[in-house]
Design goal:
373 residues, alpha+beta, Anthranilate synthase, nine-stranded antiparallel β-sheet, 31% strand, isomerase, isochorismate synthase activity, IsoChor_synthase, isochorismate synthase, ADC_synthase
Length: 373
């Protein structure tokens, strides 16, 4: 638990209430919250990650790069670890008076009804059985009424205390959105000469079992194999053949377990090389499907909500070329008086609508158990 929790809460709340673009995150297994604040509203959007070479900050990119949603960089003009924040830290921010943007109409999101979800699964299974594609991801929205912006900071701090093995984040960009989450999935990380990416698929409840007692159904194993094969194809396209593969193994994320394969790439890669790899990995089959283009088309056709930044990617980048990018999963968009929780699951030709619905409920509970505690 953050020792100076009240001071950190006050600092982040001040950022949120005073229109600062900012980010706060906790990398997996570190227990340290890092905070970055941009001191003006001159936000930079980008088309491809390589545009941000030698830059410090935090990137926030949508699921669908061809949608109306842009990819953003938040600069870290003020950079602090949570442990450095004291009761007198807010004056650091008071020197900057950010002009309030013209207020947009209050946004309201609608929940995905179970009947609609069942119909969408059935519709997708037809294409899967016709052999048009191997796998597609269907997402839905669950609404928490009575919680909103005033609860965002507290919810983020609760998640940071509960999920040490996840990438826990709070991101706020004026007129774009405020998002919080605890992602179990690395897209691509690079530090020194070590580059890592993972294939993550399959979900089940851990309950009171030991990890060694977890067994997987054929559907989950196949689903995970699709993601692993895709990553290996992308690595081959980039002439990356020297890597260590570990897994698939069961990996715990809160109250659920996933199948996970980790890839450790040998040798230092330049920022343009890393950027190109990110471009081809995203969106992975774990959030989109296979073949990627057909899956993306089917998602655009079937899903009735806008994913926005859900299943996009986000994370810190450094001027020395280090990056830590994660898939925006187990996350919610925070509105004034609502929280819109996005959850999804992999649909294959063998999928059963009831089971798919249960899996999304299970994933939703990962966040809800903590936020409502």
């Amino acid at each position: 638990m953050v020792e100076n929790r009240n001071d950190v809460s006050s600092f982040l709340s001040y950022c949120l209430q005073n229109n600062f673009p900012f980010f706060a995150y906790q990398l997996p297994e570190t227990g340290r919250i890092q905070i970055g604040v941009q001191t003006d509203l001159d936000l930079k959007d980008y088309q491809v990650l390589s545009e941000l070479d030698a830059v410090n900050g935090f990137v926030f990119s949508p699921f669908d790069s061809e949608s109306r949603h842009k990819s953003w960089l938040i600069r870290s003009d003020i950079s602090l670890q949570a442990s450095e924040i004291k009761s007198n830290s807010i004056p650091l921010l008071e020197a900057y008076q950010l002009k309030k943007e013209e207020e947009l109409p209050k946004e309201v999101m609608l929940e995905s009804a179970s009947t609609l979800y069942f119909n969408q699964v059935t519709e997708m299974i037809k294409d899967l059985k016709n052999g048009k594609l191997n796998k597609v991801i269907l997402s839905r929205v669950q609404i928490l009424e009575g919680m909103g912006l005033n609860d965002a900071v507290e919810s983020f701090l609760k998640l940071s205390e509960a999920y040490h093995s996840a990438f826990v984040f709070l991101v706020a960009i004026p007129n774009v959105g405020t998002w919080i989450g605890a992602s179990p999935e690395t897209l691509l990380s690079s530090k020194n000469s070590e580059v890592e990416t993972v294939a993550l698929a399959g979900t089940q409840k851990l309950s009171d079992r030991l990890m060694s007692q977890v067994k997987w159904e054929d559907k989950d194993v196949k689903e995970q194999a699709f993601v692993s094969s895709y990553i290996e194809e992308v690595l081959a396209q980039h002439n990356v053949r020297d890597y260590k593969r570990t897994g698939p193994v069961s990996s715990q994320a809160g109250n659920v377990v996933h199948l996970k394969t980790t890839y450790l790439l040998s040798g230092k890669m330049s920022f343009p090389q890393l950027s190109s790899l990110v471009q081809d990995l995203h969106p992975t089959p774990a959030v989109c499907g296979l073949p990627k283009i057909k899956a993306l088309e089917l998602i655009r056709e079937v899903e009735q909500h806008d994913r926005e930044y859900y299943a996009g990617y986000l994370g810190p980048i450094e001027s020395n070329g280090s990056i830590s990018l994660f898939v925006n999963l187990r996350s919610m968009k925070v509105l004034e008086n609502q929280m819109a929780l996005f959850v999804g699951g992999g649909i294959t030709a063998d999928s059963l609508p009831d089971k798919e619905w249960e899996e999304t409920c299970l994933k939703a509970q990962t966040l809800l158990n903590v936020i409502r505690s």
